[in-house]
Amino acid sequence: MQFLQQLINGISWGSIYALIALGYTMVYGVLRLINFAHGDIYMLGAMFGYYVAVFLGVAEHASGVRVLSVVLISMLGCGLIGVGIERFCYRPLRKAPRLAALMTAVGVSLLLENGGQLIFGADPKFFPPLIHTREIFRFHEIVLNNIQLMIFAVSLLLMFLLHWIVMKTRMGKAMRAVSFSHDAAGLVGIPVNRVISFTFFLGSLLAAAAGILVSLSNPKVEPLMGIMPGLKAFVAAVLGGIGNMMGAMIGGLIMGISEVLVSGYISSTYRDAFAFFILIFILLYKPSGLLGKTGPEKL
Amino acid sequence: MRKFLLVLAVGMGLVMGCGKKSDDVKIGVYASLTGNTATFGESMRKGIELAFEEINAQGGLLGKKVRLIVEDDQSKPEEAKTAVVKLIKRDRVVAVLGEVASSRSLAGAPECQRSSVPMVTPASTNPKVTEIGDYIFRVCFIDPFQGEVMAKFAYQTLGLRRVAVFTDVKNDYSVGLANYFEKTFLELGGKIIGEESYSEGDIEFRAQLTTIKSQKPEAIFIPGYYTEVGLIARQARELGFQGPLLGGDGWDSPKTVEIGGSAVEGCFFSNHYASDDPASVVQDFIRSFKEKYGEVPDAMAVLGYDAARVLADAIHRASSFQGAKIREALAQTKGYEGVSGRVTIDQNRNARKAAVVLKIENGRVKFFKRVEP
Fold this sequence. Notes:
A: 299 residues, mainly alpha, two-stranded antiparallel sheet, B: 373 residues, Rossmann fold, seven-stranded mixed beta sheet
């Protein structure tokens, strides 16, 4: 009984990791860059959600249109910030060694965290409950509420939407081409810069969505909230095979479920240790990840 | 040689310039003005500032105006240590006030002890803090007492027999409080079922709460900080836990009710003071605090104020700014009428005083019971 409840907790928590991990994986696929600022975009999504909701006066039992507008405005805001970060921080370094870009990513991450503390204030804010929590299912001891279900459903929907964009649209085809080779894609007339901007836009949208979904079920937002989930999602992306979208989803779910099981049955003290143990294990024995392709490293 | 003399002369000039006698006396404060528990630090700073403003208005300390030097430690123990070193070495303060959190006082106190600068912590309740040395004092009660109060309260007043404990393992304060609660509750004949833990900064507690709930406790004791308590309460209610949640003075912040909402209704926590206490010393303080800051002081502001007042009282009695003399006088503090109760410093440099139990009702924190030591 308890196990089933833990499984529900784990799946809903893992969906969040999966959404963030998708952003890591997409950017890596296209640029071969681990965008460490991605976890902070997730924080910005939650922060923007908070400010837009307060500004629009959206509180409990708000109408669907207003809730949706809060979500869309903050996603759009984060998308633009993601594009801006790429334009001004990563693009000038595209021809530089990869380590330089990686360090810049760490720098951007620190900038967002500490700048966030300066601008938003360091104390935690209460995220208004846009959607009232309701039990929708109860069987003996097992409780499933609407927000947990929504997190899972929305994550799944966004993931399939993303899959469709990448696999079926022209832009998606261009993204795959750029991921294959920047130079070759440029030679056949694909606007490489625009495609990369679009990738950052999509990834940041997903991170913002994850930020808002988390805030609905755990309504506390603060400027440092992105650090741990960012790292865990990075582990999830590596676990699933970085660069592989399906892998990121599966990796996220595995991370969420295993974390919940570790803190539920062993001790929460080992939760983070376990996550990074997975990372070390994967890097040692299957560096390409669960679904990743092994191939010659191209530089 | 001439060059050497010149350097010497300039150097002496600098030293003498620094040594110039001034008309004010410096007291250092280190506080978490930013970071995770920023509201604690801010409140404490406000209380201390108010106290010295009043003291300065009445002519200052031993004829000198008090100048406060406030250092922010960003809610981090390692920064707390740096802040204290800065206060002592650079600013040469005569005494140090701070910190709220035990883990940060534990980082700062050894520096004060080493330099023989008296330190008074307003609100660090972990016993280890004053065990660091004879220059470290506090004006609040300690965790054993607070843990005992809540255990007795749970057993005797609420009639609870099966309680689970949910501890923040990264926090000395939380771990200490949990231990003393468990010890007393077991001695009384109660049962501790389920001990789970989380870490400061977590937002997801459902896994541990699911485990706790499956053991069917009557109540959960959560000796954490306000930053997590609200979310823990919400998630516990979502999972269908109905019993009361109990806590310590870490709950004392408007954020507990703001984040917890209806989930913290009917919950109890122990604290240093209650703002609806009718005593005149309390109401007078609240009035002047409101005049200055436009808000009702929380316990950290009150303890900050009391710490500053107790220190000032000791300096008056010592009639000296020497560390050793202030230390002597602090150790002899007896029956000082503070806002948070009558403060007597015992031989372990801890304050003996009463605690209050507060109840959250209709989104407001209400005085429930006073518990004497």
